[in-house]
Amino acid sequence: MAVEQPFSAAGAQTPPSRSAVTERHATRVALTVIALLFLAVFLVLPLVIVFLQAFTNGVGAYFAALTEPDAVAAIQLTLLVAAIAVPLNLVFGLAAAWAVAKFEFKGKAFLTTLIDLPFSVSPVISGLVYVLLFGSQSLLGPWLAAHGIQILFAVPGIVLATIFVTFPFVARELIPLMEEQGTADEEAALSLGASGWQAFMRVTLPNVKWGLLYGVLLCNARAMGEFGAVSVVSGHIRGLTNTMPLQVEILYNEYNFAGAFAVASLLALLALVTLLVKTILEFRYGHALSGSTGH
Amino acid sequence: MRRSTLPGFSLTMGLTLTWLSVIILIPLAGLFLKTFELSFDQFWGIVTSRRTLNALKISFGLSFAAALVNLVMGTVIVWALVRYRFAGRRLFDAIVDIPFALPTAVAGIALSSLFAQKGWLGAPLAELGIKVAFTPTGIFVAMIFIGIPFVVRTVQPVLIDLDPEIEEAAASLGANRWHTVFRVILPSLIPALLTGFALAFARAIGEYGSVIFIAGNIPYVSEIAPLLIVIRLEEYNYAAATAIATVMLAISFAMLFVINLIQAWSRRRYGYGG
């Protein structure tokens, strides 16, 4: 790349000082078109096709597919699982962020890596570990069976797998934010006579509320949309252990494309709402949110 | 402990460690323990069987290729989003996150019908003699889809924070734009680019939902490693499922370690964490 001169500052219209820190007009246009075309084809088209396919047989068929008993059961199960998994990870995320961000201790970086671990594990493996732990072949299996406790192929297994994959979302959103804010505000509250709990509720929580909302939002989107991990532990029992993504798979494999895309459109709508709120939060409270990489 | 004036350390740390152990560490340890129930010969036999090796080769090879595409396209997208001003820039910035937000199964069936032989993109490609859906190319396409935000979101904040004075200095010292971009700007993005590449690569290796609908899932041809785990599990062949999972997990952890090394190196060398 030593001899190329095509982007030299020789453009007749552009003053030299300007062209030295940006590209030629043609280059700028070309790069922008390539970037936007790629985003449109690879990311927007899949989203568009979900809604188009969902309505191929008309609005009536769309709502019929969504009110069909198995679809309703899948929607209810998905809501139930998220309603259990998200609050649990919310409490964990707050506790982890308080411990990691407000105190100094050895092995902090290692602990943060452990918290992020589920992002590096294939969803299939996230489900597999619970099959190995609670399945009939496991050490716990016979004991669970003898006591009539069903974890696999039932709601508890689905909840556990969902908690596993959504584990880091709230914590990783809050930790950098709370580290940045330091401890001065809380110390002031304590010195004015507030209890630790009061300082947390009245000072810490309001300081991180937008970051917290952001984390919960991402956590919820993943909890409702998780497929691989849940698929391994659910057993795919129609009307009983099928979440919405699993229902999408079953309908699709039965060549009921309109039905599959109808259920999928609800999940796509959830994704759109999540993105919309995320964009609004970033736009309005950009400084109150850390620029961390989501997953 | 420097900041010891705040209360609640033992409570929150206890809660964190308990929850982490119960949900993540004990189940993962169980997977490794299960592997030790196999003799080494059994383990080696499963891992080096032709079908497993093919699945691993397909997963790793295509993930690597897709991550390369993500690296190049991600850089172009970041450049356009950060450096240029055009109508709808904020909208396109938000669009980058679609693969994060869209459930993988939904992405899977959408890509599958898009690239099917009669699909919007599949039909014109078929006329050119390119078959995407139900071939390894389909896996490749799904992995590109899932990986693009990792590169963009890792590189974007670094490019935004890049001091414009460096570029002005390079230009005022007589470097043309080409030299400034490739000799001055891109080198300082290297840690972020590497991290983004590694994250996209790692995600593609483990990806299941968005791949299996478009893959065709033909053994030896278009069967990814996570799918082979599921197949073994459905055959109640726990030993094989565990052995393949252990190999994948070991490689994932190695990648995580590499990402951490890149970030530590980057903090020392460039003053940001990649």
> How many separate domains make up the residues of chain B?
1
Rg for CA atoms of chain A = 25 Å
Regarding quaternary structure, what we see is heterodimer
Report the structural category of chain B.
Answer: mainly alpha
CATH architecture of the largest domain in chain A: Orthogonal Bundle
Account of the 3D structure:
Chain A is globular and about 65 Å long. Chain A has 295 residues and is mostly helical. In chain A, 73% of the residues lie in helices and 0% in strands. Residues 1-17 and 291-295 of chain A have low confidence and may be disordered. Chain A has 2 domains: 1-7 and 16-54; 58-288, MetI-like fold (Orthogonal Bundle), CATH 1.10.3720.10. Chain B has one domain (34-270): MetI-like fold. Chain B is built from 13 helices and no strands. Chain B is globular, with a radius of gyration of 22 Å. The interface between A and B is large, with 109 and 105 residues.
Overview features:
heterodimer, A: 295 residues, mainly alpha, MetI-like fold, 14 helices, 73% helix, disordered N terminus, disordered C terminus, B: 274 residues, 13 helices, globular
Summed up, what is this model?
The complex is a heterodimer of chains A (295) and B (274). Chain A is mainly alpha-helical and 295 residues long.
Set out the fold topology.
The complex is a heterodimer of chains A (295) and B (274).
Chain A: H1 16-19, H2 25-54, H3 58-67, H4 69-102, H5 108-116, H6 123-134, H7 140-146, H8 155-166, H9 169-181, H10 184-191, H11 196-225, H12 228-234, H13 244-253, H14 257-285
Chain B: H1 9-36, H2 40-47, H3 50-83, H4 89-95, H5 98-101, H6 104-115, H7 122-127, H8 136-161, H9 164-172, H10 177-206, H11 209-215, H12 225-234, H13 238-270
Helix pairs in contact in B: 1-13, 3-8, 3-10, 6-8, 6-11, 8-10, 8-11, 9-10, 10-13, 12-13
